[in-house]
Amino acid sequence: LAEDGYRLWLRYEPIADASLAKSYRSSIGPIEAVATSDTAKIALAELERGLEGLLGGELKRTGATLLVGTGDAKHIAKLKLDLSGLGEEGYLLTRHKKNLVIAANTDQGVLYGVFAFLRQLQTQRPLENLHVETSPKVDHRLLNHWDNLTRTVERSMAGASIFNWFDLPYYVEPYYHDYARACASVGINGTVLTNVNSNATVLRPQFLEKVAALADTFRPYGIQVYLTARFSAPVEIGGLETADPLDPAVIEWWTDKINEIYTYVPDFGGFVVKANSEGQPGPQSYGRDHAEGANLLARALAPHGGFVMWRAFVYDFEIKEDRHKQAYTEFTQLDGQFEPNVSIQTKNGAIDFMPREPFHPLFGATPETPHTLELQITQEYMGGDIHLVYLAPMWEETLEADTFARGAGSTVAKVVDGSVFGHELTAIAGVANIGNERNWTGHPMGASNWYAFGRLAWDHQLSSQEIADEWTRMTFGNAPDVVATIEEMLLESHQTVVDYSMPLGLHHIMYPGHHYGPGPWHDQGRPDWTSTYYHNASEDGIGFDRTATGSDALGQYAPEVVEKWGTPESIEDKYLLWFHHLDWDYEMKSGKTLWNELCLTYQSGVDRVAEMGQQWDSLQGSIDAQRHARVAALLKRQLEDAKFYKDACLAYFHTFSQRPYPAGVNAPE
Ligand code: GCU
């Protein structure tokens, strides 16, 4: 069990390099800390555990001391450090004369500082000139669990839900602490316990008791608990005949319910709501709009300090317009009508967590209303917990995309962190990939995405490369060949999955239902779930015309974006078929025809998976056998899946293109 991955990136294995360990030991010295609160005790215990594991034995008096605490503790106060820029959660790691210091304004900041300090050692960075001063750019950094009370998990394959509702509140699983600890180690400070598609059961008192037990467990780690709110709850569990948000009885019901929740969980964070989407009830069922629905909950939460994340993932069963356009159409017209404690929770792209999407046009389009960026950590459309895909490069692409809302540099990241429009309510959410598998995420590499989500939520300026480097060292050790090989695998893996599944801007061509394999031929009977609607392949060519001659979804972006993406020559190849319908013989930037480029891109995705397998094999003996064997087996399956994706898509598209397969492509059998 020792190497089953349970410890995630918090392994604290002894530092193998004896001279480095010695130098760490002499510069750290014994710990001086005062720990009275639960959070401070957790911080101190973590520090002791980490140092014990990494350096072993007791730290000797060498003249140096590791000073740990908040600015008002005597031993920190006398250092006269400037902690004014750190806010509630930030921390400072620094040297003061011979001593090392971990300081913050709150115990929570100290806890984050402890994890960051240990990270320095885990990644073997020098301590001589240690100076790290950081605070989060986004206030609410949440996991969204798509977990049902029955313990099934929507779109996750890493086992059942970690939340054992049956035994709560009487039995609190010890591993809840490990979950909270892992979240805190990367700065995650909130968790939504229930699925966006959940019914209202969790709002019953019998379940609120259970929620309270989880909230009590997570609180000392700085993690607030949130729930999803089923809009029809007043009818479902309240005995009312309507859930109309303007009905006085409904307003009273929600107000009482929310007051009741706060008697169980005094620091309850608020709600995520999926309304009028994919069959979920919502205000439109009563002729009201999203703002009227969101405000109902927001007003009742406001006195307690809670907030509402109202999801923009809305689309109609009957396609009135390109699904890409619907959220923008609905939400831009409501801008300015939401209560201040409402944030629109918006997926990174306008369709649905495709392997690659251009950024959602809503970012930058609602100056009066903040957005919670919703990312999907679980790999719904990218091979579940079977395929190795490091998602940070994709998230980075969204975060750095320029909306031009207030001129150049108005990136999605800056819309989300509030700086473009001066919003104070800032949030980012990641749909969790965690289950009750011993290693939490099924694929041992899946943990890199949990880790990366937290790190990027804290600081969106970190690069995906830096994060991969940290995670690899903490998870697999610092041996140079191990680090270099795994980092390369991680960093190329996202482009790889795009290439073997939905290259050049293709999207929504997966098999319906499980979303795991290819299904470009599939017709679901409703256009918005039908692959052919999205790729539009015919004898004439392939791609979705979203320019002014087509659906004009492109018109929802700023003029600078329209200019860039408006022609097949100016748009990046990676988004080409998302916005343009082109002839099979269209000449690409590479000089190849579109058909040939498409075939070669699919092939290169497959080839890259084969290479990953070889790279991983080269690490045999450098990584513990258990984790090595598991990843090796998964890579074999990923290769078979990639070939199948490529073969199925090319064989199908070939029926339209009728062009020969170019040299270098293994034609589907
Ligand atoms: C996707 C996913 C659903 C999920 C939905 C959502 O469509 O397939 O399972 O409920 O997104 O985000 O609400």
TrEMBL record:
Active-site residues from the entry: 278 (proton donor), 352 (proton acceptor), 380 (proton acceptor)
Gene Ontology terms for molecular function: alpha-glucuronidase activity; xylan alpha-1,2-glucuronosidase activity
Organism field: Pelagicoccus enzymogenes
Catalytic activity: Hydrolysis of (1->2)-alpha-D-(4-O-methyl)glucuronosyl links in the main chain of hardwood xylans
Listed name of the protein: Xylan alpha-1,2-glucuronidase
Lineage: superkingdom: Bacteria
GO biological process: xylan catabolic process
Subunit structure of this chain's protein: Homodimer.
Record domain Glycosyl hydrolase family 67 catalytic: where: 121-440
Ranges of residues in domain Glycosyl hydrolase family 67 C-terminal: 441-664
EC id: 3.2.1.131
Cellular component annotations (GO), alphabetically ordered: extracellular region
Family: Belongs to the glycosyl hydrolase 67 family.
Top enzyme class: hydrolase
InterPro entries for this protein: A-glucoronidase_C_sf (IPR037054), GH (IPR017853), Glyco_hydro_67_aGlcAse (IPR011395), Glyco_hydro_67_aGlcAse_N (IPR005154), Glyco_hydro_67_C (IPR011099), Glyco_hydro_67_cat (IPR011100), Hex-like_dom2 (IPR029018)
Domain annotation Alpha glucuronidase N-terminal: ranges: 8-116
Keywords: Carbohydrate metabolism, Glycosidase, Hydrolase, Polysaccharide degradation, Signal, Xylan degradation
